[in-house]
Amino acid sequence: MEIDPFVFRLSIFILSIFVGYYVVWSVTPSLHTPLMSVTNAISSVIIVGAIIAALAGNNENIFNEASVFGFLAIILAAVNIFGGFLVTQRMLAMYKKKKK
Amino acid sequence: MISINLLALFYLISGVLFILALRGLSSPETSRQGNFFGILGMSIAVIVTFLSIGNFSTSFLYVIVFLLIGGSIGAFIAFKIPMTAMPELVAGFHSLVGLAAVFVAISAFINPEAFNLGFTGNIKLASLVEMSIGAAVGAITFSGSIIAFLKLRGIMSGAPIIFPGQHILNLLILISIVVLTYFLCTTQNSNLFWSLIAISFLVGILLIIPIGGADMPVVISMLNSYSGWAAAGIGFTLENTALIITGALVGSSGAILSYIMCKGMNRSFFSVILGGFGGTDQISKSSNKEQKPVKSGNSDDAAFLMKNASSVIIVPGYGMAVAQAQHALREMVDTLKKNGIKVSYAIHPVAGRMPGHMNVLLAEANVPYDEVFELEEINNDFANCDVAYVIGANDVTNPVAKTDPQSPIYGMPILDVEKAKSVLFVKRSLSPGYAGVDNDLFYRENTLMLFADAKKMTEDIIKSF
Q: pTM for the complete prediction?
C-alpha cells in the first residue's frame, strides 16, 4: 500500500515548525520588528495560489466568478510582498555599528 | 511548461530560502543578506508558477498588471511609512495576508478544477477541510488585524471592550465553526461555506476587542502567528510545499514572539486572550498616594547631574516614540559622549507597541546597535551607573513589581533603574502607566522628576549643557 501524499506534506509541515522554532529563537531581540515584517512578506507566497486562481479563467471570460477572487488576492498579496520586503530593507539599512 | 515534480522542487528551494531569510536575522550584519534570500525565494516561487501554467494569454497580462498595481501600492507605503507607525503597518499587512487567504480559498471552492481538487459540489474531502481551515483562520486574522490596526492607530479606543457573557459567546461561536465545517464537508453546500467565513470574521473582531492597549505587543505577535497558520492551511489545499513551509515558519515565529512578550509582562498567554487588562477602572487604587513627596527639577538640574556623571544609561519607552524624541535624544547622547561620559541604552522586552520597536526607532535616529542592550545584558550595570535617564518608559521601571505581591504587575521583569545613583524621570505628570499602577520610583530619594514633554526636555538639556 502506498503512503498518502498528505502524510508527506504533514511531515514537511511538522518539521518546518521545528525549524522555525529553532531559527526564530536565534533571532536577536533587536531585530524582532524586521522579523515580523519579513515573515509578513514571505507568508504572502500565498500569491502562487492567487495566480493559479486568476489564470483559471478562459480567454473569452477572463473575469469569471472564481478568477475575480484570484485577481483581488493578487493585489493584496503583492502589496504585502513589495511592502514587506522593502520596509524590512529600509529598517535593516538603519542598523549600524559604532563608528571607530 | 515545466513538470509537476520540477515545480515541487522549485517550491522546496523557495521554502529553504525563506528559512535562510529568517536565519539571517540572527545578527544585523547578516540580516540584509537574509532579506535578499527572502526576495529571491519569492521571485522563484512566482516565476515557476507562471511557467507551470504556461498560459501567456490576455489573462496573463492582467495578472502582471494587478501584480504591479499591488506592488506599487506596497512600495509606496514602505517608503512613506514613519518608523513610529510600524506596529500599525504590520497589523495592516497581517490583515491583507488573512484576506488573501480567504479569497484564494473562495476561488478554490468555486472552481476546484483549476486546483485539481475535484469538481464543484464534489470537492475532495481532505481538500475541503483544509480549505475551510485556511478560510476560517484567514478571516479571523483579517478582522482581528483590522481591530488591532484601529486600536494602534488611535481610531478606536485602546480600552478593552467587555460585556457580560463574552467568553461564553466566543466559545459558542467557536463550536459553531466546527459544526459548520462538519456539515460543509458532508453536504458540500456553498451557503455553509459563506456562513463559515462570515462567522470567522465575527470571531476575529470579538477576540481582539476585549484586549487592552498595553497588551498590543502580544496581539500583533499572535496575529502574525495566525496569518502563518492561515497560509499553511491554504498550502495544504493547494499541495504547495513553499506555502506549507512558510506557513509553519511564520506560525511558529509569531507564537514565539507572543511567548516572549507575555514573559516580558509576566502574564499568561491565556489571560491576555481573555482580555480586560489595562482598563481605566484599575486606576482608582493609586489616587490616595498623591500626597507623597516628590522631587522635581528642570533641565539645568538634569544637565548638572549628567555633567558630573561618568556613566549614563538611557531607558526609552513608548512615550519617547509618541513625543518623537528619539532624534533629540541621540543629539543629547552625542553631547554627553563629547564630554567623555559613557552612555548605553537599556531596552525592556515590551517597550513600545510591538517586539523590537524601540530598537528600530533608535536605529533610525542613528544610534549604533552595539550601544543598545536588552534587559538581561544591562540590568546589573544600573548599580554602577551614575545617572539613569528614563524617557517615555514607566511600568517597566516600577520597583513594586519586585516587592509588592498585591500589585497587578508583580513578578514582571523590570529594569533595575532605582539602583542608579540618580534617576532622571521625564514625564508629563505623575499619572500611572498602562497597567494603572502608581510607580514607586517617583517617590524615591534618588529620583528627580522632570515634568515636561520628552522631546522638549531633552532639547532643553542639550541647551543647558
A: 0.90
